[in-house]
Amino acid sequence: MTILVTGGAGFIGSNFVLDWLSSSDEPVVTLDALTYAGNLENLASLAGDARHIFVKGDICDGALVAKLLAEHQPRALLHFAAESHVDRSISGPGAFMRTNIEGTYTLLEAARAYWSELGEADKAAFRFHHVSTDEVYGSLGADDAPFAETKTYEPNSPYSASKAASDHLVRAWHHTYGLPVLTTNCSNNYGPLHFPEKLIPLMIVNALAGKALPIYGDGKNVRDWLYVTDHASAIRAVLAGGRLGETYNIGGWNEMTNLDIVHTVCALLDELRPDAGGSYKRLITYVKDRPGHDRRYAIDARKIERELGWRPAETFATGIRKTVQWYLDHPEWVARVQSGAYRDWVAQQYTA
Ligand code: NAD
Ligand code: DAU
């Protein structure tokens, strides 16, 4: 038995692969194009581990995906690979359309061809697990009910529109061809190995460098935050017991404003790495808002709990402490990430 993971060198994918191999001996083949967000160093602890094979390649390369499926005969394909940063999708949507839509289409077609040739037992056991986001549902008002799986799709950014399109493709391949698919829509993840263009890691690394902590708009946008290994355990639960063709929302029951997040990060840094200049909160700076900035996301995660018994193991207090400590303990990881394309991106994003 083997699983094929796309995007396994990124933030969530690498945490998933590490988590998987820490609790199972079932081999993993990771396919990742190593874009700016893909970092093989995230998987360095698996070097020489016979249970893990890394393949550098593009999910839009149908021949490569077909070859990997034929060669490794996986019993599941877990699809994490994506362009994932909303701000980048606003300044350059093309890569999002290609990877998130065309890439998912390419994987579905390759998986369909492979799956249709399997023997009956393997065919029944095969799963195509699509990892998606709560952003496909749109934006909530302060008093609206959290997103349930039945919520209409109302994506607002090029990123969320491309993920919504990919969700629809996955659904269609199930209904039309019978491909055994599962889709999970998760809220904002945080934790180790998070690329420092996203809110939480950016605030940690900027604070430690004495740089401004840029808050978009009024800082009162709300997100639901989930520790990344809880996302991994939720995916394992859905892969193992999810009903075919169903979607499962995954969330942390933890809505917070961006300002509350940044204040929490600053307070932890004040405790763990006090700065002679005073509290890190002095670095908070309000900057121009993200265009079309969704106001609030919230997840109703009762379906996955009711059907599969999954609930997050971490609270925000435990998860954010581990996260801040991880960044304090890994300055060399941060330095290497920052010496690459990331630096050019930050310069482009935060001028003017
Ligand atoms: P990430 O940007 O950190 O990693 C994406 C990975 O995909 C990288 O390793 C990158 O190299 C790879 N990749 C990109 N284009 C590729 C291509 N064409 N072919 C092969 N590999 C390619 O993203 P993440 O935050 O780890 O998100 C993983 C998945 O989870 C995405 O599908 C995202 O939409 C979804 N998601 C993310 C969050 C979150 O909070 N980060 C929440 C819910 C869902
Ligand atoms: O909800 C799930 C989604 O969460 C995932 O699908 C995306 O891949 C992931 O990037 C994330 O999207 P967000 O846009 O919510 O995450 P981001 O970290 O970019 O921003 C979180 C909030 O913080 C958002 O309201 C914008 C704000 N923000 C972000 C940055 C980078 C700031 O105020 N300042 C910043 O510098």
TrEMBL record:
<feature type="domain" description="NAD(P)-binding">
    <location>
        <begin position="4"/>
        <end position="323"/>
    </location>
</feature>
<keyword id="KW-0520">NAD</keyword>
<dbReference type="GO" id="GO:0008460">
    <property type="term" value="F:dTDP-glucose 4,6-dehydratase activity"/>
</dbReference>
<protein>
    <recommendedName>
        <fullName>dTDP-glucose 4,6-dehydratase</fullName>
        <ecNumber>4.2.1.46</ecNumber>
    </recommendedName>
</protein>
<comment type="similarity">
    <text>Belongs to the NAD(P)-dependent epimerase/dehydratase family. dTDP-glucose dehydratase subfamily.</text>
</comment>
<dbReference type="Pfam" id="PF16363">
    <property type="entry name" value="GDP_Man_Dehyd"/>
</dbReference>
<dbReference type="InterPro" id="IPR036291">
    <property type="entry name" value="NAD(P)-bd_dom_sf"/>
</dbReference>
<dbReference type="InterPro" id="IPR005888">
    <property type="entry name" value="dTDP_Gluc_deHydtase"/>
</dbReference>
<dbReference type="InterPro" id="IPR016040">
    <property type="entry name" value="NAD(P)-bd_dom"/>
</dbReference>
<keyword id="KW-0456">Lyase</keyword>
